[in-house]
Amino acid sequence: MKDNFSTGSDNYARYRPTYPDDFFDYLNRIKTGSQNAWDCGTGNGQVAGKLAAVYDNVFATDISQSQLDNAVIVDNVHYSLQPAEKTDFPDNFFDLIIVSQAVHWFDFVKFYAEVNRTAKNNALLVIVGYARDTIAPELDSIVDKLYYNIVGKYWDKERKYIEEGYRTIPFPFEEMESPDFKISYDWTLEHFIGYLETWSAVKHFIKEKGFNPLDLIREELKDGWGQTEKRVVEFPLLLRIGKIKNVS
Predict the structure, then answer these.
(1) Would you state the pLDDT for residue 190?
(2) Which 3 state secondary structure label does DSSP give 126?
(3) What is the Cα–Cα distance from 64 to 61, expressed in whole angstroms?
(4) CA–CA dist 164, 130 (Å, integer)
(5) DSSP per residue, 152-215
(6) What is the CATH number of domain 9-244?
C-alpha cells in the first residue's frame, strides 16, 4: 500500500470532498448488523465519523500517522496505524468494511484475504470513491489540461482504477446493485484550487520540478471562474458493494 498523503494531510482534511448524507442513509438501510465497522484507509476519518452514529464501534486504520493526527475525534472511533493487508483485528468481527478513495492503492489479494478473515458472514464490503469533478465546460477544459498535459505523467499507475470507475478492480464478492450518488458543493475558486493541490500527481510534480503546477493555469482558472464567488462543483460517486460469504 502506498502512502501519498502524509504530506499536507491538514490540507487534505480541509479541501477534499466528503460523502453525501444520502449515501450514508442508503448504507444504513442495507446494513446487516451494527456492532463493529472497519473504515480501512480512513485518512482524516470523515467516513469513520459518519459511521460512528450508527455502529457501536468503528475501527479506523491508515498507514499515515499524519493523516490520523488530523482525523476527527469521536468517542467510539478507534484509530490505529495499520496496513490494509495485515491487521490485528479478530476473525469474524466486522458487520461492515468500507474503503473510501483508497482501494486502488492496496494489494488486492492480501486485502481481500484480510476482509474474508475479519468479516462476519453476510457482512458488507463497500468500495467507494469519486470520479473527476465537473463544473462548466470552460473550466473543465482547463482542468483537463492540468490533469492530462501538465501532471499526466506524474499519476501513479493505480490511478487507472479511478479512471475506469472502479469497474476493473478485482471484486470476488456477491455484488449488490446500488443507486447512483454524487457529491455536490458550492465552492470558491480558492477552495477549488486547494482541492487540486491535494492531487497526488501535483505533489509528485512539485517534488520533481520544485514549483507548483497550479501556477501554470492559475490565471486561466481565475478568468474562467469569472465574477461569481462560488461555483457548483460535482463529483460522481464510484461505488461497489458486496456481501462477504467466504469467511473463515
Answers:
(1) 96
(2) strand
(3) 9
(4) 11
(5) GGGS-TTHHHHHTTTTTS---SEEE-----EEEEEEEHHHHHHHHTT-HHHHHHHHHHSS-GGG
(6) 3.40.50.150
